[in-house]
Amino acid sequence: MSVKKIEPSIEYTEVAQSAEFKQLMAKKKSFIIPLSLFFFIFYFTLPVMTAYSKVLNTPAIGAINWAWLYAFGQFIMTWTLITIYTKKAETFDQIVDQILRKTVGKG
């Protein structure tokens, strides 16, 4: 005997065309694009600087040069971006919940 799960009806086209959904997508885009650009620029600066410049090869602290400090900074940057994204995703999830409450069962 199988149990058939009853799921609420959602009109996806209506949701995608709603002002709330468009506002959510605009907020996500305005958050994700600048953060992604920052990440890629910060990430690719290390290999470019080490390949085409001697700036990061100079000693910073004893035998540790700036390239090692920059590489360590990438770990810190990644964890910081993860934390920021996680916090921001909570607000996106709340908006999604509001949209779902408004549209579930209408179709």
Description:
The protein has one domain. Helices cover 73% and strands 5% of the residues. A hairpin with a 2-residue loop joins strand 1 and strand 2. The longest helix is centred in the C-terminal third of the chain and has 38 residues. The relative contact order is 0.17. It has 107 residues and is mainly alpha-helical. Keywords: Membrane, Transmembrane, Transmembrane helix.
Spell out the key features of this protein.
107 residues, two-stranded antiparallel sheet, single chain, mainly alpha
List the helices and strands and how they pair.
Elements: H1 12-17, H2 19-52, E1 59-61, E2 64-65, H3 66-103
Helix content: over 70%
SSE topology string? HHEEH
Count of DSSP-assigned helices = 3
Beta content comes to: under 5%
- Gyration radius, to the nearest Å? 23 Å
Task: List the domain count as a whole number.
Answer: 1
Integer average pLDDT: 90
- Number of β-strand runs: 2
Cα distance, first to last residue?
A: 29 Å
Report the uncertain regions. Answer: none
By secondary-structure content and strand pairing, the structural class works out as: mainly alpha
Largest sheet: 2 strands, antiparallel
Strand order within the widest beta sheet = 1-2
| Shape by Cα distribution | elongated
Pfam families: DUF485
Keywords: Membrane, Transmembrane, Transmembrane helix
InterPro entries: DUF485 (IPR007436)
Transmembrane segments: 31-52, 64-85
